[in-house]
């Protein structure tokens, strides 16, 4: 659960990381916009590491439910 590796994965996924948004400084908060030819979807995410359990909790919100499910599947493979 290396902080730099986690940041690199989120940035590589296309999210902008937002500092000092979450009261817990260990959590990662990101935002982005997915653009296609016919659609623009806003995306917010929070990744909460649990070092004791060696697991993460991912919360993802988009303006389109199918996009949320697809992104959760892609990100869960990374963490």
Give a brief rundown of this model.
The chain is α+β, with helices and mostly antiparallel strands and about 80 residues long. It has two helices and four strands, in the order H-E-E-E-E-H.
Describe this protein's structure.
The termini are close together. 13% of the residues are buried. The protein is built from two helices and four strands, in the order αββββα. By secondary structure, it is of the alpha+beta class. 30% of the residues lie in helices and 37% in strands. Strands 1-2-3-4 form a four-stranded antiparallel sheet, with helices on one face.
Largest sheet entry: 4 strands, antiparallel
Secondary structure tally, helices: 2
Backbone CA Rg: 13 Å
Could you say which structural class the secondary elements and strand pairing correspond to?
alpha+beta
Terminal residue distance: 9 Å
The neighbouring-strand order within the major sheet is 1-2-3-4
Helix percentage range: 25-40%
Overall shape: it is globular
Oligomer: single chain
The total beta strand count reads: 4
Low-confidence stretches: none
Summarize model confidence as the mean pLDDT: 92
Strand content: 35-45%
Q: What is the ordering of alpha helices and beta strands?
A: HEEEEH
């Amino acid at each position: 659960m290396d902080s730099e590796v986690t940041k690199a994965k989120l940035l590589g996924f296309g999210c902008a990381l937002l500092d000092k948004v979450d009261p817990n400084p260990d959590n990662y908060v990101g935002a982005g916009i997915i653009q296609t030819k016919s659609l623009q979807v806003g995306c917010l995410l929070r990744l909460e590491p649990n070092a004791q359990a060696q697991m993460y909790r991912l919360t993802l919100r988009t303006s389109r439910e199918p996009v949320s499910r697809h992104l959760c599947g892609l990100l869960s493979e990374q963490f």
